[in-house]
Design brief:
11 strands; alpha/beta
C-alpha cells in the first residue's frame, strides 16, 4: 500500500494542479485574438530556412509571401542551392545561400545568422518561420503586436499539428506536442518556438542574440535565454499559431520526440528534469491504479479516474483554444478535436519514453546532419 500511494498521491496532486491557470489562459487567448490591430506596424523581415523538400513546401512559402502586412520582406535562406527544391519559390522572395562551415554551430542557426545580416536596413523587426508550416494571413501582425508593449523583448506563436492524412502516429504527435503549447499564456513565457518568433532589431542587437547563436544547434532556446538575460519578457501571440499538415510514421515519431527532449535536456535542463519527475509519477500512478483495479480495488478505479480526468479536460481545452486561433482548420477540428482529450493517457506514456530515451545520448540528427550537443 505504501508504494501504491507513493506514486498515486503525487500523481493525483500533479493532475489537480495542472488545471491551475487554465481559465486565465483561456481569457488571455480570447483577449489577444479579439484585440484591435496595432496602430502602427514597423517594417519587418521574415526569415525562413529551407533544407530540402517538406510536405506542401510550395504552398507554405506562398503563404509567407502573401501575409497581410504593409511592409515586409521575405528571405528564404539555405546552406546551398541544392537545399531548395525546384519550383517552390514565390515571386519577389529574396534568396540567400549561407554556405556556413562552422562545425560547432547547427546549419539552421548558421543560416539564420547570415539572413539577419542580409536583412534590409530599414527593417525594425525580425520574424522567423519554419518551412513545414502554413501560417494564416494575420500571422505576422499577431507576432508583431506584443512587441510594442512595455518590457516585452520577443513574441512567440506555436505550431498545431493538423495532419493529413490523420494516421495514428500523426495524431498522437499532435496530442504529445500540444502539451508544450499548453505552457504558453499570459505574462512572461519560458521559451519561444523557432517556427513563429519575432524580436525587434534593437533588442536583437542589444541582447547579442547573434553571439548566443554561436556554438549551438538551438535557435529558439538561445534567443529566449538572451531575451531573459537582458531583463525582458517573452509574450505569447496565439494569433501566430501555425498549422502543420506534415504526416509522420511511428518510427519517425519516436525519433522526433526524442530529438525534442534531447535539445531540451541540453538547453533547458531544469525544464527537462521537472518533466521527467512529473511523468515518472504520472505514469507510475497510472500503472499502480490499473494493476490495483484489475485486482479488484474500487478505490484504485476512482483514483485512476481522478488522475486521468484533469489531463483529458486540459487537453480538450488546449484544442478548443487552438481551434479559435485557427478558423481555417475548423473542419479538421470538427473531426479530430476529440483525440486531444481521449488520447492524453497514451501521450503521457510517450512523454516518459521520449524523456528516458533522451537521457542516454547527446547526438542529435536533424535533416541529415548529426550534431554532438
Amino acid at each position: 500500500m505504501f508504494w501504491y500511494w507513493f506514486f498515486v498521491g503525487p500523481a493525483l496532486l500533479l493532475a489537480i494542479l495542472s488545471l491551475r491557470g487554465e481559465r486565465r489562459r483561456a481569457e488571455y487567448v480570447a483577449a489577444r485574438l479579439s484585440a484591435d490591430p496595432p496602430a502602427s506596424l514597423p517594417p519587418a523581415t521574415v526569415i525562413v530556412p529551407v533544407k530540402g523538400e517538406d510536405d506542401g513546401l510550395r504552398g507554405n512559402l506562398a503563404a509567407l509571401a502573401n501575409l497581410n502586412y504593409p511592409d515586409y520582406e521575405l528571405i528564404v535562406v539555405a546552406h546551398s542551392a541544392v537545399d531548395i527544391p525546384p519550383g517552390v519559390l514565390p515571386s519577389g522572395v529574396k534568396v540567400l545561400l549561407a554556405h556556413g562551415d562552422d562545425p560547432h554551430t547547427g546549419e539552421k542557426v548558421q543560416n539564420l545568422r547570415a539572413a539577419v545580416t542580409a536583412a534590409r536596413r530599414r527593417t525594425e523587426v525580425f520574424a522567423f518561420a519554419d518551412s513545414d508550416g502554413r501560417p494564416g494571413p494575420g500571422w505576422l501582425r499577431a507576432l508583431v503586436a506584443p512587441l510594442a508593449e512595455p518590457g516585452v523583448g520577443a513574441s512567440t506563436g506555436f505550431r498545431w499539428f493538423v495532419p493529413v492524412p490523420p494516421t495514428f502516429a500523426s495524431l498522437l504527435r499532435g496530442v504529445w506536442d500540444a502539451v508544450v503549447a499548453g505552457r504558453l499564456g499570459p505574462g512572461d513565457n519560458p521559451f519561444v518556438w523557432g517556427g513563429a518568433m519575432a524580436i525587434r532589431r534593437e533588442v536583437f542587437e542589444q541582447a547579442a542574440v547573434a553571439e548566443r547563436w554561436k556554438n549551438t544547434i538551438s535557435d529558439d532556446y538561445s534567443l529566449a535565454a538572451a531575451v531573459h538575460a537582458a531583463g525582458l519578457t517573452i509574450a505569447y501571440a496565439p494569433g501566430a499559431t501555425v498549422p502543420s499538415e506534415e504526416p509522420i510514421g511511428m518510427r519517425g515519431l519516436l525519433a522526433w520526440t526524442r530529438r525534442q527532449m534531447q535539445i531540451t535536456r541540453v538547453y533547458s535542463p531544469r525544464l527537462w528534469w521537472a518533466a521527467l519527475a512529473a511523468h515518472i509519477f504520472y505514469c507510475g500512478g497510472m500503472a499502480a491504479s490499473i494493476v490495483a483495479s484489475v485486482r479488484g480495488s474500487r478505490l484504485a478505479e476512482w483514483a485512476l479516474l481522478a488522475q486521468l480526468s484533469p489531463g483529458m479536460l486540459k487537453g480538450l481545452n488546449r484544442a478548443t483554444l487552438a481551434r479559435a486561433a485557427l478558423p481555417q482548420c475548423d473542419a479538421w477540428f470538427r473531426r479530430h478535436q476529440w483525440v486531444h482529450a481521449i488520447w492524453v493517457p497514451p501521450a503521457t506514456w510517450l512523454w516518459l519514453v521520449a524523456l528516458a530515451a533522451s537521457a542516454v545520448s547527446r547526438t542529435v540528427e536533424w535533416r541529415g546532419n548529426r550534431y554532438r550537443v
